[in-house]
């Protein structure tokens, strides 16, 4: 599980660097399909990972962040780094005995739901990969080569 | 690992069913970003999963399939089912002792490369999720709601 998180974080960093070579106008332009602009999609990925993992850590639901507070690369990188610091201890401590623990999740619009920890951690993993797939289409729309989605040849399994 | 494969296979089936409500012209139209058309992308997902897992099973490199032989939903479903039958015993037998086994991979255009089994199995998993993200953008292009990418609420963790 950890390797797939490390993959996501490495790919996310590569996309942040990719964004540095794209105008703010392109980054903020509403795209068809997906949650919105390129920058909003990256913000959404960070927010969703942070919210769910905070829940698994037993923390109270974080206050809903406002995209406008993070709508440039400097602020988005800081937001990602801050969230990352909070959630990594949990990811590195993950083990199979945690798979069947139950998270009770409720929000104002839904009734209370129960999820297994193993379900949530995979949901978070695939959520990022799915949205990165959307970025790869939009990058071609603005004439740029996307970041490779390959797991292989990233050095993730060298040790 | 198995749960994520089951997720991919369920999502793939949902997309097959989704395709039934789309014209062949739309399914075969070349899209921007990604490997090609919607149908070609699904073909590519099946082919890549089958080729890599066959390698992990110690089988010789399968003969490169020709997309034109599978370019409608009936043939693509049959192709997916046939590949699925061959690879599932390996996926269900997967265990952590196989993580560090080495696959030597060579093809006419590349030098011989070594990969850990754990690297390949995650590569195959993320490969499908990434391309499904691309389908979700294209589905909006043709005015249709995409298949949900959520891991949660699919019944995958009910037992």
TrEMBL record, chains A, B:
This protein's record includes keyword Secreted: no
Keyword Oxidoreductase belongs to the record: no
A Pfam entry, by short name: DinB
InterPro entries assigned to the protein according to its UniProt record, in alphabetical order: DinB, DinB/YfiT-like
Coiled coil: none
Alphabetized UniProt keyword annotations: Metal-binding
Assigned protein family: Belongs to the DinB family.
PANTHER family: DAMAGE-INDUCIBLE PROTEIN DINB (PTHR37302:SF3), SLR1116 PROTEIN (PTHR37302)
Designated name of the protein: Damage-inducible protein DinB
